[in-house]
Amino acid sequence: MQTLIIINDPPYGTERLYNGLRLAHALLKRDGEVTVFLMGDAVAGAKTGQKTPDGFYNTERMVKRVTSRGKVLLCGTCMDARGLTDDEVVKGAERSTMDALAEATEQADRVLVF
Q1: Rounded alpha-carbon distances, angstroms, from residue 71 to 33, 34, 51, 99
Q2: SS3 of 87, please?
Q3: Other CB atoms closer than 10 Å to residue 32's CB: what's the count?
Q4: Which of the two ends of the chain, N or C, has the fewest CB atoms closer than 10 A to its terminal CB?
Q5: Cα separations (Å) of 27 from 1, 11, 45, 91?
Q6: Where do runs of H (alpha helix) occur along the chain?
Q7: Which SS3 state, helix, strand or coil, does residue 58 take?
Q8: What is the pLDDT along the chain (114 residues), one digit of tens a residue?
Q9: Maximum distance among all alpha carbons in the chain?
């Protein structure tokens, strides 16, 4: 089953990105096909070099785990608006477009929005 997870919230301050990535990990463990599309402030969750306190979740590491078996797409317009360049994001996460999101939506068996 192919799942598309769309996340809009920032990496810290709310737990929507955290929980969306946790769900992506759980689905990947079940051998599902997962695409995560980060848009709005969520694109910052894929930024490299994050330093969080010991014992606190780190969205950079969580995004890396998804890219190892699934796909992570980042809204390019959202990246530009936040000054986030391709060189500053987790290896394996890809700059993307609304057209790619539309295609992923059409191909998915289910779409979840956080």
Answers
A1: 9, 6, 23, 16
A2: helix
A3: 16
A4: N
A5: 10, 20, 19, 21
A6: 16-29, 59-69, 76-81, 98-107
A7: coil
A8: 999 999 999 999 999 999 999 999 999 999 999 999 999 999 999 999 999 999 999 999 999 999 999 999 999 999 999 999 999 999 999 999 999 999 999 999 999 999
A9: 40
